[in-house]
Amino acid sequence: MRLSKRMSRALRHDPARVGLVLDEAGWTSLDALCAALGVSVADVEDVVANGSKQRYELAGGRIRARYGHSLPGHVEMAPADPPAVLFHGTGAGAVDAILRDGLHPDGRQYVHLSPSEATAREVGARHGRPVVLIVDARAAAADGAVFRRGNDDTWLTDDLAPRYLRRA
């Protein structure tokens, strides 16, 4: 298994499986991660620096995944002003429920959104025939929704009501 996938499992989904403990903000020692995965600091730094999804961050000898956690709680990230419009990719089978009930994290800490319709379509393709939803992020933010920037391709928020969503 590629190191980035192993890191993802350890830092986003099942740290106990490799003997890690994450603090309330999702951080663990870089040395502890390297020992748990049997890799060098340089190996991990390479994934952080060159990973296509900018999924991890390093600070002060510690590491965490920025987003995508299925663990309880929230990895705290600073709120940010979103672009006027964001996109959400999903499979055709989920669209009616989303347009009726809104978007919910469903096993993750945050709802994931994209600033790119093309990226949202790629994400939707993971779930069958892709459908892209347009999110009126400006209106949602004006009504109190808090947005966070996960990376260049990922925006995060909590539940979004259906009134902010429409098909692309």
UniProtKB/TrEMBL annotation:
Keywords: NAD, Transferase. Its EC number is 2.7.1.-. Pfam families: PTS_2-RNA (PF01885). One of its GO terms (biological process) is tRNA splicing, via endonucleolytic cleavage and ligation. The keyword Transferase applies. Removes the 2'-phosphate from RNA via an intermediate in which the phosphate is ADP-ribosylated by NAD followed by a presumed transesterification to release the RNA and generate ADP-ribose 1''-2''-cyclic phosphate (APPR>P). May function as an ADP-ribosylase. This is Probable RNA 2'-phosphotransferase.
